[in-house]
Automatic annotation (TrEMBL):
One of its GO terms (molecular function) is DNA binding. This is Uncharacterized protein.
């Protein structure tokens, strides 16, 4: 919203959204390299924010038309920043987190850098087990938003302000789940008792190493996840892309997974997660084909030409 206001001031437009100003603003964003999907999303947030903060009940058919057209075009263009190589599977990312934690344990419980590595491994495990955006992960707080119940149950409760929601939804919405994950439960428990106190006296699940008392920001979490996966998996996977991995793996492995995925991701647009379901259908077909080819290699057969 602030970016919109600044653009309007610099270009001499009123901040009230119109079809013409949205079209012009979309053009400027596109010239800056912003994808069509992101432009559509930005305009939707601007319209929602204006209706919430400036003019309750504001609606514009022209604005809706611009957003709808960009959304349709964005679906055709696809996601330019996402590649198939980034789909390694949520289980792979979770296991990588486990491996990093094992390496941290080997360094010993008195080493601050071991605590950092433990935190980093826990970040990947949490991102794969609780597929929320980086903003939500930055709100993870042991004893407040992440509560260890009787093993192996973990209660994750986030306020609406931590989620990607329209402004008018944040006051009454939230994320509330109870997970059954003994590996993650043990990791959080050990971290809280042994490694977390090395940072500071706080309870943030992902505390900052350099700024004592502060937590790792959402932007830093995104970069950290990308750096870790780039280093260990040779492919950069953002926190948001981890969500795609969860959706794809759920679609592959769970019955009716394409329809379960929106619940896992807390995503209200089934079309978004159905894209992962479609991809998973291709993955499953490729796997079946590989199995068939392997079985054919177990005996010889003459070709009839």
């Amino acid at each position: 919203m602030l970016r919109w206001v600044a653009w309007c001031e610099n270009s001499g437009h009123k901040i009230t959204p119109t079809g013409a100003t949205f079209h012009a603003y979309a053009g400027d964003l596109a010239r800056e390299g912003v994808s069509t999907r992101s432009v559509s999303d930005y305009l939707g947030r601007i319209q929602s924010g204006y209706a919430t903060a400036c003019d309750p009940g504001f609606k514009s058919v022209a604005c809706d038309h611009v957003i709808s057209r960009l959304n349709a075009r964005g679906k055709v263009e696809g996601r330019p920043t996402k590649t198939g190589e980034q789909l390694v599977g949520a289980s792979t990312i979770f296991y990588l987190g486990e491996q990093i934690i094992e390496m941290a344990r080997a360094l010993g419980p008195r080493d601050l850098f071991a605590a950092r590595d433990y935190r980093n491994g826990l970040l990947l495990m949490a991102a794969a087990a609780v597929p929320q955006r980086a903003r939500a992960l930055s709100h993870f707080d042991i004893g407040r938003t992440v509560i260890l119940l009787e093993r192996p149950y973990i209660h994750v409760s986030l306020p609406g302000s931590a989620l990607k929601l329209r402004e008018y939804e944040k006051e009454h919405a939230g994320y509330d789940r109870v997970l059954e994950n003994p590996v993650l439960w043990d990791a959080v428990d050990e971290y809280w008792r042994i490694f977390r106190p090395l940072f500071d006296n706080g309870s943030a699940l992902f505390p900052s190493l350099l700024d004592v008392g502060a937590r790792v920001s959402a932007a830093q979490i995104g970069r950290l996840a990308g750096n870790l996966t780039q280093k260990h998996l040779r492919v950069r996977i953002s926190v948001h892309r981890v969500r795609d991995n969860v959706a794809t793996e759920a679609s592959e492995e769970l019955q009716a997974g394409g329809y379960i995925a929106p619940v896992l991701l807390d995503n209200r647009n089934p079309a978004t997660t159905m894209a992962s379901y479609d991809h998973a259908e291709g993955v499953r077909a490729a796997r079946d084909h590989a199995d068939f080819v392997a079985s054919r290699r177990s005996f010889s057969a003459s070709l009839r030409l």
